[in-house]
Amino acid sequence: MEISGKVAIVTGAGAGIGAALARALVAGGARVVLADLAADRVAEVAASIGAGAVAADGDVADERVIRGLIERAEAEFGPVDLYFANAGIGGGAGLQSTDAQWAAALEVNTMAHVRAARLLVPGWVERGAGYFVATASAAGLLTQLGSAPYSVSKHAAVGFAEWLSVTYGDKGIRVSCLCPMGVDTRLLQTGLVPAEDVAEAELAVKAVTTAGAVLTPEQVAAAVMEGVVAEEFLILPHPEVLEMYRHKGADYDRWLRGMRRFQAGLQA
């Protein structure tokens, strides 16, 4: 994949990984529509990038908003070549998570990807080219201690990206799935779990910050650019995640016992 000259949409671009991705894309010669629920923040990021970047706000889990982003990109720059489904939220804690918390996590972390693909992929198939980049998490390959909705919705995001690649990979559609561990973003800083669930909130953050290095958004964006240029499905800014995933697949019961020990150690 050649980035220069391409048109991209990046969701969750008001800060963190999304903002870093937008900057990296424009630096590589792409033109980008940045989308975020926070209108002021995404406008500031786009303004700081300058030419080649425009901002749009809205809930990117809403199909009408996604359609508007695509129309905006086409009007400003031309047909969309790459879609970075990067927006994400935390969720509730454990079994006490409400239906509303489950629904919100699944809407933003999974269904937003489904709806974007539904709008873009048919046209990409006609053109014979298109690239979908799903931001999931290492939690989607492993698990997230302290948060059932986050873990499940990220597993679903990985599963959808796999399905998309298998179903359309021979029709010119490329798919990558980003699965980092700790990244210094607002999501990690404010907690993956609502603060009122004190024990689970502390557990969720400790599980991330003690498992490996906490990378900067810029480091993650650089890994994504490398992965997209190489057209790799699984993008792992933390390479050790692959070894963890291999251990999980090699002996699932042993891995579960190890995760229980890890959890007990963090709780102690």
UniProtKB/TrEMBL annotation:
GO terms for molecular function: oxidoreductase activity. Transmembrane segments: none annotated. SUPFAM superfamilies: NAD(P)-binding Rossmann-fold domains. It comes from the Bacteria. Keywords: Oxidoreductase. It holds the Pfam family adh_short. InterPro entries: NAD(P)-bd_dom_sf, Sc_DH/Rdtase_CS, SDR_fam. Belongs to the short-chain dehydrogenases/reductases (SDR) family. This is SDR family oxidoreductase.
